[in-house]
Every structure is written in structure tokens, then in C-alpha cells.
Design a protein that fits this description.
six-stranded antiparallel beta sheet; flat; five-stranded antiparallel beta sheet; 13 strands
Length: 560
């Protein structure tokens, strides 16, 4: 036994056991996130439930069952539900929807109080722009030119015919608001900023009053023309909205006390489906449509519905900008420390400081980024290049550029350490052979050392990307927002707008999961966004790993 302990085999086996446990825990976590995230897009059946309150009154619930849980025995006894069956001894979380009518989105129903639970074939689910889902039975549909469809079958057929047209008109309204009116407003804003700059130059004595007045008359005339264009665009929007208001459906919904009749504008409906009678092919098509909407559309309903495309774009762009800033500085610092700096006490202190930086809490880097990049550098840029826009900041406020640089500072120690290890692994004989052939030190580093160390540098880049993509705390104070109406990249010159705020998948998870009052409605979105963030990080890492493997094959050396 003593010989076995001295051999160290016991510790090798213990290491393997704990590694296996860690892998199982990680796999279980990923499996949980994956299953919960995938279930978000499944079309749940709509239940018509009759149950009783404590006084024995008959109540109704009409919606989708999202989860259930076992009722503790003491609670059953306290409420007088003795002898309840296994199925009855549960409570069910039902999404009853119609929040604009009933004021709540979810309701807990005790299993022993349920007297009837049926699936109606004509149960309809309406996904809306606002106020969450609506559940009910379609009764009528009203369309322009006095068209009325009074039976459920006729109304459903008319809905399938008119809804694509209505959605195209809604998208046209949004295109006018976002693109055409946005471009017009940008042109007006640019002209006014140009006038403000001339006022600033006039105050500084760099512009004559007569020149300023002439320019002011010209700019005012251009602004007047653009305001007329803006008014015409607004008239088009008003006309389209008046036309959209003529499309309306009638719905029979179920309140706890009984049924009610409501009318819902067709323009507010994103999607309608009957989950209780969907075939397998319809379910697959619905699933694919929801997945595509999730990755390609903008969020709605306070980020609880719709897609996360702005957050995907912001996350990927931030990681790329962070890598472009962190990797060159990290490699240069490692080259200096390993190849040029004189070894001694000072260098050991620098290395200790670099290693300690890797363990500093991320929120500390966030505070540094806010003070240095945003207030000091950004404020200086505003005072130097954008004085006409003050006191409104341009770069003196949070944006994707400052967030990326803050995360670059956070991850640059990882790049430095990995690059130093890669440089140290290159045999000394290779350097000496290069010197013997007459190469200078810089030529040796550029043509021999750096290419050979590239796989190790890529390893540091991979680690930096993996850490930076998941950080949230520094972003909350350096540029990330709940909803960004304008992305950092668009078709407006200069195309990249690094001063703009942005969305991030990590912050989106935090916001949806912890900053909303309706957590039950958002838990699926939390899991789905977390799964998407893991996939994006995995894809970024796989891209870097593939590049590293190719470089390793290209610069393969003996002993590596």
C-alpha cells in the first residue's frame, strides 16, 4: 500500500475521477439548457380547464400548461384535499394570456380543484406585438369595403388570406419609419449640426457674420425642404395605419367567471395557429419558423418575445473588436518581456502584475473603462472634434468601442501569458541557427519565432474570446443597453458607428431573467438565449481552433 501511495497512481486515478465528475456536471448543465431552450419553440396544446375555488364556485381557465409541480402533503391537508390521486396532487402553471383584458399572464391551478380538462379543436393562439399571447375561439373578421365574415370557418379562411397582406403593410410602415424617415431626420440633424459648428466658429472669430448669415439662410432652406419630405412620409404612415385599422377580428375569450367577446386589430397579430390540431409537418414548419424568427428578428414585448438578432450582432462585433485590440497588444507585450527585456527583479514584478490582472474582478475593469475610456478619452474626443454637439456627448458616453476596449484590457493578460509560453517553447537552437545564417534579431523574430509561436498565440486568442464573450458586468456601465434601436453597423456613412450603444446576449439573459416582473413568461427565453450564446462562443472558438490547426501544420517544427 505504501509503495502504491509513493508511486502516485492514487492521485492520478483521483484526478481522472474528478475530471470525469466535472465533465458529467458540464454535460448535464448543457443538456438542461439545451432541452429547456429547444422546448421554447414547441407549440403547446391549449387546455380548456374548469376548476373550483375554495367556496365551490365554478371558474374557467383557457391557455397553455407551461409546467407543473408536486403539491406537498401538508399543503394538501391544509386545503382539505385528502386522498388526492398522484395526478391530482399537483399544481399546474397555466399561461392564460389576454393580459390586456385580465391583467395577468399566468395562473397556478391546484390539481384537486380541476373538474374538467379538455382540448378544443378550434382553440386559437394569437402571438401579438404587445400584451403577450391571446387565447380564444375565432368568431368574426372585419375587412375593408364592408366585408364581414360571421362564421368561424369563413373568418379563419379570411384571416389566412388577409393576414400576409396586413403584415406586409405593417412592415412597410416600419420601413418608412426606420429607413426613410430615419434618413430624413439624419439629414436634418446633420444640417443643424453644421449650423451649430458655424455658430461655434463665429464665436471663436474664425467666421465672418455675413458668411454665417448666408450659410444660415441656405441651411434653413434645406431644412424646410426636408421637413416637407418628412411631413409627406408621416402622411403616408397615417394613411397606411388608417387602412390597417379596418382589419379586425372578433375573439371569444374565457375569463374565470365566464366567456367574453373582444376585438383585436389584425395588424397587432404576428402569428396565429391552432396547436390542438397541428399535424407533424405543421409542427415542424412552425418550429422552423420560430427558430428563424428568434435568430433573425428584433425583440418585442420587453425582450420576452420575438428575436435577438441585434444582440447576436452586438455580441459578435464586440468580440471581434475586442480581439483586434487585445491580441496585437498582448503579443507585443509578450515579445518584449520574452525577447527584449532584461531578466531581473523588475521583470518578475511585471509578470506577477500581469498574472494578478487576470484575477481582478471584471466590474473593476468596467469602472476603469468608464472613468478612463468614456469620461477621459471620450470626453477629450468630444471637446476636440465634436464641440458643436456639446453638451450632448458623442464619444463621451458608453458605446461599443469603449466596451470592446474595456474587455480587451480584461483579456490581454490571458494573451500575454499564452504568447509567452508559446515563445518559451521554441528551442533556442532555432534562433541560433537563424543568427548563424546572418539574420538580425528582428528578422529572426519576424520570420522564425512568431510563425512558430502562432498556434500558441491562437490558443491565447481562443481563451480571450471565450472569456470576453460571456462577460456582462463591465458592459453594463460601458455601453450595453436593454434595447438598441440603431445597430453599430448600417447603410449610413461611415457604416461603422462605434459610438453607438449595443445589445449583448449575456446582458439580454440578465435582463429577461431578472429585470422583469413576469419571470414565468420569460424563463424559456432565458434558456434559449443562453443556448444561443453557448453556440456562438463555440463557433467562434471552433473557427480559431481550425485556424490554429492549419497554422500548426504549416509551421510544424521538430520537437513541437
Amino acid at each position: 500500500m505504501k509503495q502504491f501511495l509513493r508511486s502516485g497512481d492514487l492521485f492520478i486515478w483521483l484526478t481522472g475521477v474528478f475530471l470525469g465528475i466535472c465533465l458529467l456536471m458540464i454535460s448535464g448543465l448543457l443538456l438542461l439548457i439545451g432541452l429547456q431552450g429547444i422546448a421554447q419553440f414547441h407549440p403547446r396544446e391549449v387546455h380548456f380547464i374548469e376548476y373550483q375555488d375554495q367556496e365551490g364556485n365554478r371558474l374557467l381557465a383557457f391557455g397553455q400548461i407551461y409546467s407543473s409541480e408536486q403539491i406537498p402533503p401538508d399543503v394538501l391537508q391544509q386545503k382539505g384535499f385528502r386522498g388526492a390521486s398522484q395526478r391530482e396532487a399537483r399544481r399546474y402553471l397555466v399561461r392564460v394570456g389576454n393580459r390586456d383584458i385580465f391583467g395577468e399572464d399566468f395562473k397556478w391551478i391546484m390539481g384537486p380543484t380541476v373538474t374538467r380538462d379538455t382540448l378544443l379543436a378550434n382553440a386559437l393562439v394569437l402571438e401579438r406585438e404587445e400584451n403577450g399571447n391571446a387565447y380564444g375561439i375565432l368568431t368574426t373578421l372585419r375587412a375593408p369595403r364592408g366585408q364581414h365574415f360571421e362564421t368561424e370557418l369563413d373568418a379563419w379562411r379570411a384571416f389566412e388570406r388577409f393576414h400576409p397582406l396586413v403584415r406586409s403593410l405593417v412592415h412597410e410602415v416600419r420601413d418608412i419609419e426606420k429607413r426613410e424617415m430615419g434618413e430624413t431626420n439624419d439629414a436634418i440633424r446633420s444640417l443643424r449640426l453644421e449650423l451649430r459648428l458655424m455658430e461655434y466658429e463665429l464665436e471663436q472669430g474664425r467666421l465672418q457674420p455675413d458668411q454665417f448669415q448666408e450659410a444660415q439662410r441656405h441651411i434653413d432652406a434645406e431644412v424646410s425642404k426636408l421637413e416637407l419630405v418628412l411631413a409627406r412620409q408621416q402622411d403616408r404612415i397615417d394613411s397606411l395605419r388608417m387602412h390597417l385599422a379596418e382589419y379586425e377580428i372578433g375573439l371569444r375569450v374565457y375569463a374565470p367567471e365566464g366567456e367574453e367577446r373582444v376585438r383585436i386589430p389584425l395588424a397587432s397579430i404576428v402569428r396565429a395557429y391552432k396547436p390542438n390540431i397541428m399535424s407533424v409537418s405543421q409542427t415542424i414548419a412552425f418550429y422552423g419558423e420560430k427558430v428563424w424568427e428568434f435568430v433573425s428578428d428584433d425583440p418585442r414585448e420587453a425582450n420576452a418575445e420575438g428575436g435577438v438578432f441585434p444582440a447576436i450582432f452586438g455580441t459578435v462585433l464586440m468580440v471581434l473588436l475586442m480581439s483586434l485590440a487585445a491580441v496585437p497588444f498582448g503579443v507585443l507585450a509578450a515579445l518584449y518581456l520574452r525577447e527584449y527585456a532584461k531578466q531581473g527583479l523588475l521583470l518578475r514584478i511585471v509578470r506577477i502584475a500581469v498574472n494578478n490582472l487576470a484575477g481582478v474582478p471584471s466590474i473593476v475593469f468596467g469602472m476603469f473603462g468608464l472613468g478612463f475610456f468614456v469620461y477621459f478619452v471620450g470626453g477629450g474626443v468630444d471637446r476636440m472634434f465634436f464641440p458643436e454637439r456639446l453638451p450632448n456627448p458623442t464619444y463621451g458616453t458608453g458605446g461599443i468601442l469603449w466596451a470592446s476596449l474595456t474587455l480587451a484590457l480584461l483579456t490581454v493578460p490571458v494573451v500575454i501569458v499564452a504568447t509567452e509560453e508559446a515563445l518559451a517553447a521554441i528551442p533556442r537552437g532555432i534562433r541560433e541557427g537563424s543568427y548563424a545564417l546572418g539574420a538580425t534579431k528582428w528578422d529572426t523574430i519576424r520570420r522564425v519565432v512568431l510563425p512558430s509561436a502562432t498556434p500558441g498565440i491562437m490558443t491565447g486568442t481562443i481563451l480571450a474570446m471565450a472569456r470576453g464573450a460571456g462577460e456582462v458586468a463591465p458592459l453594463m456601465i460601458t455601453g450595453v443597453v436593454k434595447l438598441a434601436t440603431e445597430m453599430p453597423f448600417d447603410s449610413t456613412f461611415p457604416f461603422f458607428h462605434l459610438d453607438r450603444k449595443f445589445m449583448h446576449l449575456g446582458f439580454h439573459i440578465y435582463d429577461v431573467g431578472f429585470q422583469t416582473s413576469n419571470v414565468e413568461a420569460n424563463i424559456g427565453m432565458v434558456y434559449t438565449t443562453a443556448l444561443l450564446l453557448i453556440i456562438i462562443i463555440l463557433l467562434l472558438n471552433l473557427t480559431a481552433i481550425t485556424l490554429r490547426a492549419r497554422l500548426r501544420r504549416k509551421y510544424r517544427l521538430v520537437g513541437f
